[in-house]
């Protein structure tokens, strides 16, 4: 109960959501063709921002979405690390006009 309140305060005071959005906008300027961007989010608000940005860049034909749905921790991983239970991993690859890296897709499936 109080944990959510403190989490909301921390997110607001530290401008975490704005920082995430700014960071995602900037990372693609530095990502080489064929380069991969992987983001792990732990909160639904964070995940929504990541999902929206990845979709936007995909529609702009800048990236290929590697994980159509976020990867979630396994039951075993949650058993070892309970804090991982809310983690969601999303991944995109900057488009390379010469070829697609199918190996990365296979690795993440």
Summarize the SSE layout with pairings.
Elements lengths: L1 H12 L2 H15 L5 E6 L2 H16 L3 E3 L9 H6 L7 E7 L7 H7 L1
Antiparallel strand pairs: 1-3, 2-3
Helix pairs in contact: 2-3
Q: Could you explain the architecture of this structure?
A:
- The protein is of the alpha+beta class and about 110 residues long.
- It has a single domain (about 1-109), classed as Vaccinia Virus protein VP39 (Rossmann fold, 3-Layer(aba) Sandwich), CATH 3.40.50.
- The protein is about 50% helix and about 15% strand.
- The protein has five helices and three strands.
- A three-stranded antiparallel sheet has the order 1-3-2, covered by helices on one side.
- α2 packs parallel to α3 (about 45-60).
- The longest helix is centred in the middle third of the chain and has 16 residues, at about 45-60.
- It is globular.
Order of helices and strands: HHEHEHEH
Low-confidence spans: pLDDT under 50, at least 5 residues?
none
| Structural class computed from helices and strand pairing | alpha+beta
Which CATH class is shown?
Answer: Alpha Beta
β-sheet strand percentage: 5-15%
Helix content: 40-55%
Average pLDDT: 87
Count the E strands: 3
């Amino acid at each position: 109960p109080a944990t959510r309140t403190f989490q909301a305060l921390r997110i607001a005071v530290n401008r975490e959501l704005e920082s995430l959005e700014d960071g995602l906008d900037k990372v693609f300027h530095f990502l080489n063709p064929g380069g991969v961007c992987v983001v792990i989010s732990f909160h639904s608000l964070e995940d929504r921002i990541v999902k929206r940005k990845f979709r936007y860049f995909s529609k702009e034909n800048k990236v290929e979405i590697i994980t159509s749905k976020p990867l979630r921790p396994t039951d075993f991983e949650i058993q070892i690390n309970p804090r991982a239970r809310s983690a969601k991993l999303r991944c995109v690859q900057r488009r390379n006009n010469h070829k697609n890296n199918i190996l990365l897709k296979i690795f993440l499936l």
